[in-house]
What we know:
Elements: H1 3-16, H2 31-68
Amino acid sequence: xxxxxxxxxxxxxxxxxxxxxxxxxxxxxxxxxxxxxxxxxxxxxxxxxxxxxxxxxxxxxxxxxxxxx
Length: 69
């Protein structure tokens, strides 16, 4: 390998490193944070289900229109 490639690879490796997050663990859990996270996950699932329902119903409508001709 040439020296330019080695330097280029070393520069890219330093850019791709993720910072280390330091979080203090107090031993206590906030129930409101857990409930908020559960609500977000439920909303995401509901959106995904709504999209699938819309796609399936659109498919049924298109197939119905095609078969009616």
